[in-house]
Design a protein that fits this description.
The complex is a heterodimer.
Chain A lengths: L3 H27 L9 E7 L3 E3 L2 E3 L3 E8 L3 H30 L9 H16 L4 H62 L5 H17 L2 E5 L5 E5 L4 E4 L2 E2 L3 E4 L6 E5 L2 E2 L7 H38 L22 H4 L22 H8 L11 H41 L3 H33 L5
Antiparallel strand pairs in A: 1-4, 2-3, 5-6, 6-7, 7-8, 9-10, 10-11
Helix pairs in contact in A: 1-10, 2-4, 2-5, 2-6, 2-9, 3-4, 3-8, 4-5, 4-6, 5-6, 6-9
Chain B lengths: L9 H24 L10 H55 L6 H22 L2 E2 L2 E2 L11 E3 L7 E3 L7 E5 L2 E4 L4 H5 E2 L2 E2 H14 L3 H51 L3 H26 L11
Antiparallel strand pairs in B: 1-2, 3-4, 5-6, 7-8
Helix pairs in contact in B: 1-7, 2-3, 2-5, 2-6, 3-5, 5-6
The chains are: A alpha+beta, B mainly alpha.
Chain lengths: ~450, ~300
C-alpha cells in the first residue's frame, strides 16, 4: 500500500536524481569549450514498482547514468582526414619553398642565366676578337654556373631542414604514443573497476588526433576500452599500456635520418601525416629535382666543352673546356658546376684558328636549340622540371583545400552530435530545477499530511 | 526532434573568414603584379610554357642586338665601297686623260704619280677597320690584309684569308657579314690593284694604254658587282628587323595570355571579396556576441 513514508522516499530519490542531472548539466556547461569534450546526457530510469494485491505502486526514479554522446565512426573519419591534412600541409609547405627557387613567373630561376649565356655567345659571334665580348661570355658562363650552384645548394639545405623536421616529428610521435599507453592503462583500470572512463577516453581521442596529424595510424579497439595503435603499414606504436618508440638512424648512403620501428626501416612506408609529407619531399621530390638539375648542368657542360675543344681560341690554339668537367654519373654536377677558364682570350670562338673567325661561337650558341638533354633542348628540359614542381604543388594544394573542407565538415558533424549547446543546457537546467522545486514542495506537503495524520483524532 | 546543429560556430566562422581572406589576398596579388600566375603551382602548364616563351624572347632580343652590331659593320663596308668606286671612277678618267697621246712626258709622269696616290688610297681603303677589325681580311681581322709588294703579280700582297663569318639573324636564318678582300680587290674578273699598277706602268712607259684602260674598266665592273653585297645586306637586315619586332609582339602577347591577369575581372572579384569579408566579419561579431537562453532565465 502506498504510504506517506513511501511517497517521501520516492521524493528523496527524485531530489537525488534531479540534483545529479543538474550536476551533469553544470559539467557540460563547464566543459563547453574543452577541446574533445563530448556532452553528457542524463538517463533517468523508472524504479521497479511494488505490487500490492491488484495495485501496482511506482517507487520513483533513479539517475541511471550520465551518457556520453559520441560517435566512434566520426572520430575515426576525423583521424583519417587529419592524417591526410597533415601530409598535405607538410608537403605543400616543403614544396612551396622549392617552388620559390624556380619561380619563373617572377623571373627567378635558371632560364634567365641560361638564355643570357647563349646570348653572350651570339653577341660574341658579331665581333669574335672583341675582348669585352669575350669577358661577357665568361661572366655569363660564371652566372649560369652560380645559378646552378645556388639552386642546388638551396635544395640541399631544404632537404636537411626537412631531415631535422623528420627527427622532430618522430620525437612527437613517441611523445604521443607514450601518452596513449598511459591513458590506455588508466582507462582499462577504471573500466575493470566499473567506473566511467569517458573523460580519459576523450583525452585519449585528443592525443590520437594530434598523433594522426604527425603520422598515419590505424586504431584497433580491444578489451576494457583499450586500443592498439599501429602505423598505417602495421608497425606497432601502442599495444595496451606499452608504447613502442620509433627510432631514427642516419642512412649512410643519403646522410638522411631513416625511421625505424622495432629494428625495421619503415621510412618509405610512411605516407600519411606530417611525417609522410616531410619524407616525400625530402626523399622523392627534392632528389628528383636535384637529379634533373644535375642532368641539365652536366649536359650543358659536356656539350659546351666538346664544342669548345672543336674550336680555337683568340691565339689560334686549340680550344679548351669552358666549363669544369662534370662528375661521372651526373650526381653533383649542378653543385660543382664552374667555369674552367678566366682568360677571355681562351674562349674558343674561332673555327679556323684565326682571331676573326666566329664559326665556333655560332656553334656554341646553337647548343641552346639542340636536343642535348635526354632528347630535349636545355630550355625544354628545364621547363619540364618547372612543370613537375608546379604540378606537385598545384595537386597537393587542391587536395589540401578539399581535405580542409572535409575536416571542417567532420568537425561540424562531431560538434552537432557531441558539442555542448548553451541553449539546450539552459533548458535542461530549468527543467531539472523545476522538477527539484516540485519535489521539494511535495516534501512540505507530505510533512503537512503527516502532521495531519499524527494529529488525527485530536480536536 | 529536429536535427541538432553544431552549437560551436566559431570554427566554421574562422574557416570562412580565412577562406575569404585567401581570396582577397590572391586578388590583391594579381592586381599588384598584373599576373594571374604568380607561382608555379598557380598554373604549372602556363609556368612551363613561360620558360619556353622566355627562352624565345631572349633569343629574339639577342637577334635584334646581333642585327644592330652587324648593321654598323655593313654600313662601314658600304661607305668604304662607295669611296672605292669613286676612286676607281677618278682612276678611269685619269687613265683616259693620260692615254690620249697629247700629253708631254712630264705631264704623263704627273698623271702617273696621281695614279700612284690613288693606288695608295685604295690600299688604305682596303685596309679599313671597324671596331679594331680589318673588315676586308676574311677572318684574319687582326692583321692588315693588304700590303704594297713590288714582287707580287699585281703589286699588292693579300695577307687575309677567304673565310666568311656568318651571324644568326633569326631562328634558322644566318647572314654572311663579310666579303674576303681578295674577292673584292683582286677578283679574277677584274683586279683593282693590278689595273691601277698596269695604268701606272703604261703612263710611265707610254705604251699599253688600251689594255690598261680595259683593265681599269673590268676592275670597276668587278668591284661594283661585289659592292652589292653590302647594299643588299642592309636591306636584308631591315626586313629581318621588322620580322623580329613582329615576333616580339607575338611573344609578348603570348606571355600575357599565359600569365597575365584579366585586370577588370580581378578588380571586380576583389571588390566582391571585400564586401563578402565585411559581411562575414559583421555576421561573426553578431553570432559570437549573440544571447543564449541563459540571458532570458529569471534571475
Amino acid at each position: 500500500m502506498g504510504t506517506l513514508n513511501s511517497a517521501l522516499s520516492i521524493i528523496v530519490g527524485s531530489l537525488d536524481a534531479d540534483q545529479g542531472a543538474i550536476s551533469v548539466t553544470t559539467n557540460n556547461l563547464a566543459n563547453a569549450n574543452t577541446p574533445g569534450y563530448d556532452r553528457q546526457i542524463v538517463q533517468f530510469s523508472e524504479n521497479d514498482p511494488i505490487q500490492e494485491g491488484n495495485l501496482s505502486f511506482g517507487t520513483g526514479v533513479t539517475l541511471e547514468q550520465a551518457q556520453t554522446v559520441r560517435s566512434n565512426v566520426l572520430q575515426i573519419q576525423l583521424n583519417q582526414e587529419t592524417q591526410a591534412s597533415g601530409q598535405l600541409d607538410s608537403f605543400v609547405s616543403g614544396m612551396s619553398q622549392v617552388e620559390t627557387l624556380f619561380n619563373e613567373t617572377a623571373g627567378t630561376g635558371l632560364q634567365t642565366p641560361l638564355s643570357a649565356f647563349f646570348s653572350s655567345l651570339q653577341q660574341l659571334s658579331t665581333n669574335p676578337s672583341d675582348s669585352s665580348l669575350r669577358v661577357g661570355v665568361i661572366s655569363a658562363a660564371q652566372n649560369l654556373a652560380t645559378a646552378f650552384n645556388q639552386s642546388s645548394s638551396a635544395l640541399t639545405t631544404q632537404q636537411s631542414d626537412l631531415n631535422q623536421s623528420v627527427e622532430q616529428s618522430v620525437g612527437e610521435v613517441n611523445n604521443f604514443t607514450t601518452q596513449v599507453a598511459q591513458l590506455n592503462n588508466q582507462i582499462s583500470g577504471l573500466t575493470e573497476s566499473g567506473e566511467d572512463p569517458s573523460a580519459l577516453i576523450e583525452q585519449r581521442d585528443v592525443v590520437l588526433q594530434n598523433l594522426s596529424s604527425v603520422i598515419g595510424i590505424s586504431i584497433i579497439g580491444g578489451d576494457n576500452n583499450n586500443i592498439t595503435v599501429t602505423t598505417g603499414n602495421g608497425s606497432p606504436l601502442v599495444v595496451g599500456n606499452q608504447s613502442f618508440a620509433l627510432q631514427t638512424q642516419t642512412n649512410t648512403a643519403t646522410g638522411m635520418q631513416d625511421v625505424f620501428s622495432q629494428g625495421q626501416d619503415i621510412t618509405s612506408q610512411i605516407s600519411a601525416g606530417e611525417l609522410g609529407g616531410q619524407i616525400q619531399v625530402r626523399d622523392q621530390q627534392i632528389p628528383s629535382i636535384l637529379n634533373q638539375l644535375d642532368t641539365l648542368a652536366s649536359s650543358i657542360e659536356n656539350s659546351v666543352n666538346t664544342q669548345s675543344q672543336a674550336g680555337y681560341d683568340l691565339n689560334g690554339n686549340p680550344g679548351t673546356n669552358l666549363f669544369t668537367t662534370p662528375p661521372v654519373g651526373v650526381a653533383g654536377a649542378a653543385a660543382t658546376m664552374g667555369v674552367a677558364i678566366s682568360n677571355p682570350s681562351l674562349v674558343a670562338a674561332s673555327s679556323d684558328g684565326t682571331a676573326g673567325s666566329n664559326g665556333n661561337a655560332n656553334a656554341l650558341a646553337a647548343i641552346a636549340n639542340q636536343a642535348i638533354v635526354n632528347g630535349q633542348t636545355p630550355s625544354d628540359y628545364y621547363s619540364g622540371t618547372v612543370f613537375q614542381i608546379g604540378n606537385a604543388v598545384s595537386n597537393a594544394t587542391a587536395e589540401q583545400t578539399a581535405a580542409q573542407q572535409v575536416t571542417q565538415q567532420l568537425q561540424n558533424q562531431i560538434g552537432a552530435l557531441s558539442g555542448v549547446s548553451l541553449n539546450e543546457e539552459a533548458a535542461n537546467l530549468t527543467k531539472f530545477q523545476q522538477a527539484y522545486d516540485a519535489s521539494a514542495r511535495v516534501v512540505t506537503i507530505i510533512s503537512d499530511l503527516t502532521n495531519e495524520a499524527i494529529n488525527l483524532g485530536q480536536d | 526532434m529536429s536535427t541538432r546543429v553544431d552549437p560551436n560556430l566559431s570554427g566554421e566562422l574562422i574557416a570562412g573568414i580565412n577562406n575569404n581572406q585567401q581570396d582577397v589576398n590572391v586578388d590583391l596579388q594579381q592586381l599588384s603584379t598584373g599576373k594571374a600566375v604568380n607561382s608555379l603551382g598557380d598554373n604549372p602548364a602556363a609556368a612551363a610554357a613561360l620558360v619556353g616563351n622566355d627562352a624565345e624572347t631572349a633569343q629574339v632580343d639577342q637577334f635584334q642586338s646581333n642585327i644592330s652590331s652587324v648593321q654598323g659593320l655593313l654600313q662601314v663596308g658600304d661607305s668604304t665601297m662607295s669611296s672605292v668606286v669613286n676612286l676607281m671612277t677618278q682612276a678611269i678618267s685619269l687613265g683616259v686623260e693620260g692615254s690620249n697621246g697629247t700629253l708631254s712626258a712630264s705631264d704623263r709622269q704627273a698623271v702617273a704619280s696621281q695614279m700612284t696616290g690613288i693606288l695608295q688610297q685604295m690600299v688604305g681603303l682596303a685596309n679599313t677597320t671597324y671596331q679594331g677589325n680589318y673588315i676586308f681580311a676574311g677572318t684574319e681581322t687582326q692583321t692588315a690584309p693588304f700590303a704594297v709588294d713590288p714582287t707580287a703579280a699585281d703589286g699588292v700582297t693579300y695577307n687575309g684569308n677567304t673565310d666568311v663569318n656568318s651571324v644568326q639573324l633569326s631562328t634558322g636564318q644566318t647572314m654572311a657579314i663579310n666579303v674576303p678582300g681578295s674577292q673584292l680587290f683582286q677578283n679574277a674578273s677584274g683586279d683593282v690593284f693590278g689595273a691601277l699598277n698596269q695604268m701606272i706602268t703604261a703612263l710611265q712607259s707610254d705604251s699599253g694604254f688600251d689594255a690598261a684602260n680595259t683593265a681599269l674598266e673590268n676592275a670597276f665592273n668587278a668591284i661594283n658587282a661585289q659592292r652589292v653585297f653590302y647594299g643588299n645586306g642592309g636591306a636584308e637586315l631591315d626586313t629581318v628587323t621588322s620580322f623580329l619586332s613582329q615576333e616580339k609582339v607575338e611573344l609578348t602577347s603570348q606571355q600575357t595570355n599565359l600569365i597575365g591577369a584579366d585586370m577588370g575581372a580581378v578588380a571586380s572579384n576583389y571588390s566582391q571579396a571585400e564586401v563578402q569579408q565585411q559581411a562575414l566579419l559583421a555576421a561573426s561579431g553578431k553570432i559570437i556576441g549573440e544571447a543564449t537562453l541563459f540571458d532570458y532565465l529569471p534571475t
